[in-house]
Amino acid sequence: MNIAVYALKRLGSLLLVLLVTSFLVFGLLYLAPGTPLSFLLGPRGGTPEQIAAVTEKYHLDEPFLARYVAWLGDVLHGDFGQSIVYRQDVSDMIDGRIGTTAALVAIAAVVIAIVGIVLGTTAALRGGATGSTISSLASVALSTPVFVIGVALISVFAVAFGWFPVFGSGSGGLDTVYHLTLPAIALSVGGAAYLVRITRASVDEERGREHVQTAVARALPRQVVIRRHILRNALIPITTVLGLTIASLIAGAVVVENVFAIDGLGSLLVKAILQRDFAVVQAVVLVMVFGFVIINAVVDVLYSVIDPRIALGRTA
């Protein structure tokens, strides 16, 4: 019952975050220089018919809160308005790109989880030259910008060796995975390096705890000690960092998609900002924030799976 109450509280807080975010995203239109009407129609303005249509569509003749409620109602029905530049429904533009960005983030998340946990655990358990080498490589990776890593990967593996395509997201299925491999690696390098350091620190801390020493003294098999007594307890901080890192990939995808010329939400956002296509900017930012919130919700669920006492303790 306590876990159910905890889940409801978390759901309520997530909905509140989304509501506040939607209000801020909508309010950006009114913080831009000039009037919302001139911003929506562009510097050339429009005909009286166009002005009347835009005014009616965006409820510009109504109070601010009334406009926000009307816009939010449309968003909840999947209507993000129409692109000013492309004259297309924003929902259709997002539908054609969200799968690419989701696949890119998913592949990068898998790379981060595997590389970060495996190398971090190896560095902690072996120590010595192996641990120092892994830590040094992680530090170099952390200090290298994403776009530099992307350009280097393209130069070596796409241009020089010809192993991967230079740009694009493929035609679906395994072809998409093939096209997104280099972009996903570029996107994951920094996150994997950070997770390596966190994993090593967490495993080192758990190794020194009394229950681990007791398990070693009882001559339990090394793999059992590592799996049940060290890694299981080290997973809480690792999961926290992994969740935040994966959530940050949504923002990092903006850079990677432009480096690799991938037609995803990130590249769409950059184009919309440059073209002052505000309806698209609003929609993409809102979708990205929604993804961030969902990932954090999944991390909270993982906490209770790893250790149910966390959820019980928070609702006690």
Features:
316 residues; mainly alpha; MetI-like fold; 2 domains; 13 helices; disordered C terminus
Question: Helices, strands, pairings?
Answer:
Elements: H1 2-31, H2 36-41, H3 48-57, H4 64-76, H5 90-126, H6 128-142, H7 146-160, H8 174-207, H9 210-217, H10 222-259, H11 265-274, H12 278-306, H13 308-315
Structure summarized in a few sentences:
With 316 residues, this protein is mainly α. It has two domains: 2-76, no CATH class; 91-315, Orthogonal Bundle (MetI-like fold).
User: What value does the Rg take, in angstroms?
Assistant: 24 Å
Category from helices, strands and their pairing = mainly alpha
The total tally of domains equals 2
Order of helices and strands: HHHHHHHHHHHHH
- So what's the CATH class of the largest domain? Mainly Alpha
Q: Which CATH architecture of the largest domain? A: Orthogonal Bundle
Strand percentage, roughly?
under 5%
Assembly classification = single chain
Please give the share of residues in helix.
Answer: over 70%
Corresponding CATH superfamily of the largest domain:
MetI-like
Largest sheet properties: none
Low-pLDDT sequence parts: 312-316
Number of helices: 13
Distance between the termini: 11 Å
The rough form would be described as: globular
CATH topology of the largest domain: MetI-like fold
Record field, number of beta strands: 0
Mean pLDDT: 80
